[in-house]
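Please review this one:
***
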Amino acid sequence: MEMLVVIAITAILFGLIFGPLVQSFNLTRQANTQVEAQDAARIALDQVTRELGDAMIVFDNTGTIRQIRDSITPTEYKTIYVGTGIDLPQPDIRNATDPTRDFSARSITAKIDFIVPDNVLQDAGQPQGIYQPVVPDVEVDAQGNKHQWIVRYFIGLRDPSRRYSNQYLKVNLDNKTYRYNSDQTENTYILYRVQFHPDDPRFHQFDNADGMPQYALPNFFYDKREVNGVPLWRVWKEMSTAMVPTDTVDMVRFDNVLEQLVPGVTLAPTMIPNDSLLPDIVGNDAPTSYKATHAQWTYPFTVGVYHEYQIDFADPNRTVYFNHIYFGQFDPADAHFKIYKYDSATGLNDAVFDVTEYERDPNKTIRLLSNSPGVTNDPMLFTVEPDSGKVNFAMGPVTEDLDPADINNEMFNPQVGSRRVTVPIYKKIIGAAQVNTLARLVVGKIQVIGPNALAPQSDPAYGQAIPYRRVNASPGPNEYAVDYVRNEIYFNEETQGDLPTRRRNSGGEIVDVEPVKVTYFFQTNQPNDLVRADYHTKSLITLNLAVRKYDRASSTAQLLELTDKIRVRNVVR
């Protein structure tokens, strides 16, 4: 009996002595795990921030194709294909031994491509000075071909040839807890950095039907196709560098709603909502261009123009009501950027103008998309420059041919002492019911080429087409003036003679002179219009980095999540 008492007291004493000691060891181990997670995350964050902050060109994952200027031959361009994100192979969490349940979830924010700058401002054989704001780094192969480097950050499996495996991952599904481990060797997701050039022939042997090379495909890191007997996944694995320690680290989490792994890394353009654009270029009384706070927009984006507002003075808050609201956004049916007019009375949005079609038309013909009077008599027309973050209301250039004989027959206007000719704005617009009273010529954006009236009639230079000079009033021969209020131009005074209508060519023959060509830009916005935009900008990248470092003894994860907004300084140049 006494022996049992001694054993019990000894057990209690050992528990009191060694219990806190074991607990302290566990706490120390967990603290070390947390420190390792912090070091891994911060080191990766610092390098991504430093490199991406100095990037010259940033590519998104929208599946678009871009042409960039060649770094060695500034007059040439290279075609760069942008991928549609990256595939994340997904295991069957419920049954780790069933390979038929494997699939890939796609993420467009777990990968980013960009071109880094070179510190060299002058290259051998190139003219003195900087021939591009920041010169991209290049590689010269054995044949002397120069290739442009692209840096890519992405998350991928430690071993791309195997299934995902994490013995510490606990998943709760249908009120049941699953511990996922497909085999005894861990194979988790980590952050990689790879530097490659898009002209590498290994990436072009399997171009898809759209001509997109292998490096732009979402499954590039898991491609089992072989080049010279080597699978492409191995090529990428050997080229890539792990940015975090791979031991007991995972950079994905399990989403119980989606029932799949989702990335803990976000590298995405930052959303800028309701940005008020400021006038950039001012015309006669209304700006012809507005500039956003950030440039380098990604698709899709929305631009709103709030036009003709009134104030409710009976309201103590002086509420502002807009009579007309226009907004430009992408039509998912054909991926064209179109301008819509919002009707506050009916709440309907009528498509007014197809900007994409207009920009692709070499003749810059404006075709309105609706025949309703509310649209054709009052369209708001503008284009968008996503790279510079500008909204341009100066439409054109439009060139009209005027007959010199018709100008000579115009009635003399004694108030201005010149012949008055109306510039036919909207002459080429298809779908307009009448001339838009809001359309106005843009100041300083008019060019007139007419017959030379100063040379002697016997001189072959008489009647030849030359640029006319703009004056403020009382134009003489080879001159013109503009009335921006009436959208009219004036030619020489009646007392100074007519414009030439016939001329002698080099062979001595009398021929008709060429028409007077009036090239102009016009705008439809008003001085008090308010312009706002919702967009994602590549000049400000949101970086979210979540690292899970597992403690082997307790199987618990130490999570460290860091977030930063990286300002890409060179991309706006």
